[in-house]
Design a protein that fits this description.
- This protein has 123 residues and is mostly helical.
- The protein contains six helices and three strands, in the order βββαααααα.
- α3 packs antiparallel against α4 and α5 packs across α6.
- The longest helix has 17 residues.
- The protein is rod-shaped and about 70 Å long.
């Protein structure tokens, strides 16, 4: 389904000029008011796909914040590795540190040991 923005939100949703159903929303309005655009751009603006939530999500989910979270988690896990029951070899420590986000998402046992490793007090 194509989410479009209309200049007249009072008009009910229904098949648009292209024959596809259109969802009209006044919540996600285009950046430039349609009334101020030339007629050709007005027709195009009615079929414009909205991206309302993307700027908000982009503030938190972007390469910088993902990399920062990965590095912070890796550092905390690496420094607290001795609090885990995992084998204390350098290769095992480096592998688990590098793969911690994947292991954290897929293994409940790893989540428990990861929490122990990043906690500041010995338990």
């Amino acid at each position: 389904m194509l989410l479009t923005v209309s200049a007249s939100p009072a008009r009910p949703a229904g098949p648009g000029p292209s024959g596809r159903a259109e969802l009209r929303s006044s919540f996600c309005a285009p950046r430039t008011p349609v009334a101020r655009q030339p007629a050709r751009q007005q027709r195009h603006a009615r079929r414009q796909t909205t991206t309302c939530a993307l700027p908000v999500i982009g503030l938190f989910v972007n390469p910088f914040t993902i990399t920062t979270a990965w590095v912070a988690g890796a550092y905390k896990f690496y420094t607290g590795y001795e609090r885990t029951p995992f084998e204390n070899s350098d290769s095992k420590k480096a592998t688990l540190t590098a793969l911690w986000p994947i292991l954290f998402a897929t293994s409940a046992d790893f989540r428990k040991h990861f929490s122990k490793a990043i906690s500041s007090s010995d338990q």
